[in-house]
Amino acid sequence: MLVVGHRGAPSRAPENTLASFEAALAMGVDAIELDVHLSRDGHLVVIHDQNLARTTNGRGLVHEHSLAELKALDAGSWYGPQFAGERIPSFEEVLVRIGPRVPLQVEIKGATEGVTEATLAALRAHGLLDSVMMTSFHLDRLPLVRSLAPAVCIGALVWGRSRTPEKRPMSAQACITATQAACADVMLLWHECIDASMIEAAQAAKLPVGAAGGTATEADMRRLLALDVVRMTTNFPDVCRAVVPAARSEASQERR
Ligand code: G3P
Ligand code: CA
Question: What Rg do the C-alpha atoms of the chain give, in angstroms?
Fold first, then answer.
């Protein structure tokens, strides 16, 4: 099982910042998950929410701001005073600073036209298409990823239950069908949706399963490791690293 830092190491530093990515690297992650949006002037930036209010001192939507406006925001003080002045990273900065050091798991966010194409072009320019995993909850965007980068690894954020308040479970077959329709290599599910019957159905369909979300506890991680889950996106990379010795990660590298 690969240990994937969810937005870096958000249990240690403000999510989706260089500080968070450095903290995740220091914990020995096998990959770093991050979220990309387009700015008003067409630059990719790394931030989770479409709205700036939760993780910065800005207001409004990411795509309503230029890169310069976004870079002027404080993306660290909300988390703690020691992170005051931390910035929203541009995707370019992350590709330069973090990309050569660890594989990335890039989630395409937002509804902005062109975000998929821009993300792949940037990864290609940095020679990172071979190591990246591309993901999205917008499953209808993933066939475009496949057509623009036929060999890239794709993880479909199928989730395994509805993301509306009633959290209606999806059948294993529905998850598999959605993953295949998205042209994906790996099925990414909310960790509680992964059990032995889900894994058995996925294996029959030759689909590796990854755990998504981030909040899984150490006990959850041990359960998922025993189920042969290939990657664990976690808010607690240090805990997960202790559960998954590096040698166990290596065995998952090929399957991702
Ligand atoms: O594990 C993937 C996860 O990142 C999806 O959820 O909320 O971080 O976009 P979110
Ligand atoms: Ca994400």
Answer: 17
- How much distance in Å is there from the Cα of 212 to the middle of ligand 1? 6
Residue appearing with tokens 């700015």: 39
**What are 234-254's pLDDT values in tens digits?**
999 999 999 998 767 776 676
Atom 4 of ligand 1, nearest CA residue: 213
CATH class, domain 2-51+90-255, is alpha beta
Contact 58, 52 (CB under 8 A): yes
Residue spans of the domains in the chain: they are: 2-51+90-255
Name the packing angle between helices 172-181 and 196-204 (round to 10°): 40
Residue nearest to atom 10 of ligand 1 (CA): 213
Total-model pTM: 0.96
> Ligand 1 centre from 6 Cα, in Å?
7
| Residue found under tokens 């993933």 | 142
φ/ψ of residue 233, rounded to 5: -85, 115
Is residue 37 part of the annotated active site? The answer reads no
